[in-house]
Amino acid sequence: MVLLSNPATLGEGISLHHDCHDAIYVDRDFAAGRFLQSLDRIHRLGLSPDVTTRVTVLASRGTIDEVVASRLAAKLNFMGGILDDPAVQQLGDLNDEPASGIELNQADLQAMVDHLRAPST
After folding, report:
1. How far apart, in whole angstroms, are the C-alpha atoms of residue 113 and residue 75?
2. How far, in whole angstroms, is CA 70 from its chain's centroid?
3. How many domains does the chain have?
4. In this structure, is residue 10 part of a structural domain?
5. Tell me: the pLDDT tens digits for 31-67?
6. DSSP string, 54-107
7. End-to-end CA distance of the chain
8. Which InterPro entries match (predicted)?
9. Is residue 7 a contact partner of residue 80, using CB atoms and an 8 Å limit?
10. Assigned domain for 17 exists
11. Residue 2 falls within a domain, yes or no?
């Protein structure tokens, strides 16, 4: 069986971790919180140790896919550092991210512009 969806429509209230252990991302946006939440749909604490969860991200070299992957990696590294920092007492809700359609911040926009201005290889 296959379930086709996107992180926005399959974000909250759906748990697939008992039956689904493979995810294939064809297209992602810049919203790290939404990406993490979508991963959480299939991978949860308490899964049996013999369960392997596989996440595949399809991307093309030299395209905006690489820019999105780079920006998401930077955001996820930042979030990981914050979560591991014992000095942090309170975090904002990831659902409080701006509600724009593509979730761009200034650094995301600059990364896209840099990609578009780069010479073709």
Report:
1. 18
2. 11
3. 1
4. no
5. 888 888 877 777 776 778 888 888 899 999 999 999 9
6. EEEE---TTSHHHHHHHHHHHHHHHHHHHHH-TT------GGGS---SS---HH
7. 40
8. P-loop_NTPase
9. no
10. no
11. no
Tell the residue number behind the tokens 């926005």, with chain if given.
8
Report yes or no: 15 and 41 within 8 Å, Cβ to Cβ.
Answer: yes
Q: How far apart are CA 101 and CA 96, in angstroms?
A: 14
pTM over 0.70: no
Amino acid at 110: Q
Q: In Å, what is the CA distance from 114 to each residue of 60, 67, 95? A: 17, 9, 28
- Dihedral (C-alpha) 54, 56, 41, 38: value to the nearest 10 degrees? 160
Report d(CA 29, CA 34) in Å as an integer. Answer: 9
